[in-house]
Specification:
The complex is a heterodimer of chains A (257) and B (266). Chain A is of the alpha+beta class and 257 residues long. Chain A has a single domain, classed as Lipocalin, CATH 2.40.128. Chain A has 5 helices and 11 strands. The chains are: A alpha+beta (257), B alpha+beta (266). At the A-B interface, helix 1, strand 2, strand 3 and strand 4 of A face helix 1, helix 3, strand 2 and strand 3 of B.
Chain lengths: 257, 266
């Protein structure tokens, strides 16, 4: 049996200590809290959504975008798709860009991101890998399947498994900022990083999909921490007459100046 | 001794002097998937006011309407979800996600107080703050609205005046599916759930590695559920099979069957 020299003990302790430090990294960079995306003043959601570096889109996607725009210009602004049980819920690119703050809860092996509209997005940080998204057992959601790991002070999140179609007659596929697509062939990498003072959160999105993009599409959002804020609740009741009225109002253009 | 000194110096350098550790680490971590034990709905009946007791039938109708409308069920219905709850704990906030239509529930443990009444809109989940008393998380909730599923287990109803106190404590042996189910391994149990009369137990956890829950509902309810299933949302792709709709017809006449695969265990 080898002797327990002090060097051996110290070496073992250092190894253990390094392990502890690595484990504690995620705790050092706790991104829990409410985060409000910082819009530089785009004026409306569509402009804000497209206020990103232009993606290099394949010609057929450009053509499809033109068709979608023409449909909307012709008045097709109401979603008339049948709401089926098989409809995927959630929309990751839209949620991350929307004005309701993100509510992030970072636990030891999973990061939960909620938003006003009663959705929950999960990032598994327990070391698991993606499921087989081509399996019949996999049911795609608009959030895809996300796994994350810490690289120093950056949470790197890898997402696949978006749905091929969504239940929206206006845009039957998920459209990413700038006019790309999030679908079954899409791969998203997000990099979450806190500012030094912990008051700002930067998320860099990189979309990859050779059926949509000629090159990966990268852009960043910045989010401001809302200390002590409380989320509001999106709880529309279709049987509520006031809600029905609001729905009608939403498709009546306001008086133009 | 030089090695020891070097080790101590290295320790301080690597940890940045943070060996004093955040207080959160000394508290139990309730993060994980938690499945309601089958007998947890047996709760003592409360002492209701005469008015509340008389209003029970109306309240039940209101709850049914809320379910039909797929609006957020809120607390306490969220906490008795049939599917596993996903609870996530950070040092400052705890998030709870249910599969039923509901907002994510947040419990703030950062020391804040409830907001003033005119500073926050009431919600179906209310506003929750929590603090640790030893190994117990004590959660205080106010600020409810009058929407969603308002029935309280045992009787009574949640109102805008309600004040809820919850005490969360990890039981010994939490890795055992037969107590509270938690964690990452897949397990199976057999339950028959008769939707018209609520949950009834007809089985028990068979073993800690595989589980099948069978949801049964009367065929005359099929048309209703078929149109309402979009409100049943998956909270976790691991429970993906619970989204296999529409129902398959059971071999037992008069029933429709859905299979749920849930997770529990260590």
């Amino acid at each position: 049996m080898p002797s327990l020299s002090i060097e051996r003990i110290v070496a073992t302790a250092v190894i253990i200590l390094f392990g502890c430090v690595l484990t504690a990294r995620s705790a050092e960079h706790d991104i829990s809290g409410m985060w409000l995306v910082q819009d530089p003043g785009s004026g409306n959601f569509t402009d804000w959504y497209n206020n990103v570096p232009k993606p290099a889109l394949r010609p057929e996607i450009v053509k499809d975008n033109e068709a979608l725009a023409a449909r909307e210009d012709a008045g097709g602004v109401i979603n008339r798709a049948e709401r089926l049980a098989s409809c995927p819920f959630g929309n990751l690119p839209m949620m991350m860009a929307s004005s309701p703050p993100l509510n992030i809860v970072q636990s030891r092996d999973e990061v939960l991101i909620g938003a006003e509209a009663n959705r929950g997005l999960f990032i598994y940080t327990d070391g698991r890998s993606h499921p087989d998204i081509r399996s019949a057992d996999y049911v795609a959601t608009g959030f895809g399947h996300s796994i994350g790991r810490w690289e120093g002070d950056t949470l790197v999140v890898d997402t696949i498994g978006f749905p091929a179609r969504v239940c929206d007659s206006r845009r039957p596929v998920m459209v990413t900022p700038g006019g790309g697509r999030a679908k079954e062939t899409t791969h998203l990498i997000e990099r979450f990083r806190l500012s030094d003072d912990g008051e700002m959160l930067s998320i860099t999105f990189t979309w990859e999909d050779p059926t949509v993009l000629l090159a990966p599409h990268t852009y960043s959002y910045k989010y401001k921490r809302l200390a002590g804020a409380t989320p509001i609740e999106n709880n529309d009741d279709p049987s509520d007459p006031a809600y029905q009225q609001r729905l009608l109002q939403s498709v009546i253009p306001p008086p133009q100046k | 001794m030089q090695f020891v000194a070097a080790f101590m110096a290295l320790s301080v350098a690597l940890t940045g002097g943070q060996t004093g550790a955040p207080t959160a680490s000394v508290h139990p971590d309730v993060s994980g998937y938690w499945e309601l034990r089958y007998d947890s709905l047996s709760v003592p009946a409360p002492s209701l006011t005469a008015k509340a007791a008389a209003d029970q039938p109306n309240q039940r109708r209101g709850d049914i309407q809320a379910v039909r409308s797929c609006i957020n069920v809120g607390v306490p219905a969220l906490m008795e979800d049939r599917a596993a709850l996903d609870i996530r704990q950070s040092p400052t906030v705890i998030g709870i996600v249910a599969k039923s239509p509901s907002s994510v529930r947040y419990i703030y443990t950062d020391g804040r107080m409830h907001p003033e009444k005119d500073e926050a809109d009431p919600t179906t989940n209310g506003h929750s703050i929590g603090h640790w008393e030893g190994d117990t998380l004590v959660v205080d909730t106010v600020g409810f609205n009058d929407r969603g599923v308002r029935s309280i287990p045992g009787g009574g109803v949640r109102t805008s005046n309600s004040h809820l106190t919850e005490r969360y404590r990890l039981l010994d042996g939490v890795n055992d599916c037969r107590s509270l189910s938690r964690g990452t391994t897949r397990s199976f149990f057999k339950n028959r759930i008769h939707m018209s009369s609520g949950i009834t137990k007809s089985g028990r956890l068979a073993n800690p590695v595989s589980t099948t829950a069978i949801l049964m509902m009367r065929s005359e309810q099929k048309s209703y559920w078929k149109g309402r299933t979009t409100c049943i949302r998956d909270v976790n792709s691991e429970k993906k099979r619970s989204l296999r709709w529409p129902f398959q017809q059971s071999q037992q006449p008069g029933y429709w069957v859905q299979q749920l695969i849930l997770r529990c265990g260590a």
